[in-house]
Design brief:
The chain has 137 residues and is an alpha+beta fold. Helices cover 34% and strands 38% of the residues. The longest helix has 18 residues. The radius of gyration is 14 Å and the shape is globular. 27% of the residues are buried.
Amino acid sequence: MEVIIAKDQKTLLDHFYVRGQVFIVEQEIDWTLEFDDWDYDSTLFNIYDKTLVIGAARLYKNKVGRVAVLKDHRHKKAGSLLMKAIEDFAKHNGIKTLELGAQTYIIPFYEALGYEAYGEIFLDADIEHRMMKKDIL
């Protein structure tokens, strides 16, 4: 598996395809909530298994978001590799702490990567989330 930064037309389409499949189709989130202005100013990451895109995430300043792995590729370390690539990129760019809003069911995944939950549960797109953070420098 390989993580790349989406920069050209194909990799950008791959990125938005994954997010569309996971968040819009699978989780039934309205597309107007899924795609927002942060996409224009974010670093967009894709993970590929050979030539097949299987996951995506974005980094806006120090905020990780829209982390998604296609259903058939979950529990195969793709999410962990994606997060490691984001952390390496952040370190290289002087970001000291990463934050994210995690859907509550996936909090154990992020805790296993060293993220700590804080604050109260909140709703985003009618799905329960909790803020998490990790010091990376």
